[in-house]
Amino acid sequence: MKTATAKDLRNRASAILARVRKGDEVVITMRGKSIAVMKPMSEIEKSFSPVGFGIWKGRKEMTDVKKWLDERRKERHRR
User: Fold this and answer.
1) How far is CA 66 from its chain centroid?
2) What is the biggest distance separating any 2 CA atoms in the chain, rounded to whole angstroms?
3) CB 41 within 8 Å of CB 17
4) How is the chain split into domains, by residue range?
5) Torsion over CA of 6, 7, 8 and 14, rounded to 10 degrees?
6) d(C-alpha 4, C-alpha 19), whole Å
7) DSSP alpha helices (H): ranges in 1-79?
8) pLDDT, tens digit, for every residue of 41-73?
């Protein structure tokens, strides 16, 4: 596991994120103490269901997000 200081993260964020993308875990330290771990997301963690998120939670028309979006994207006026 690699380590990087908060200053390293601020100055070399893209290089550190590239290491994480490749599968490395990076411990972020501040003043000599570990404060965070950056690690790649697993396939299971990547799933995200927008239904029930934030202000949309509990809305009946949001049970099928694709259908809801298609309705909103249809032409409203015929030409």
Assistant:
1) 21
2) 66
3) no
4) 2-40, 49-79
5) 90
6) 11
7) 6-11, 13-21, 43-46, 65-73
8) 875 565 666 555 666 667 776 677 788 788 888
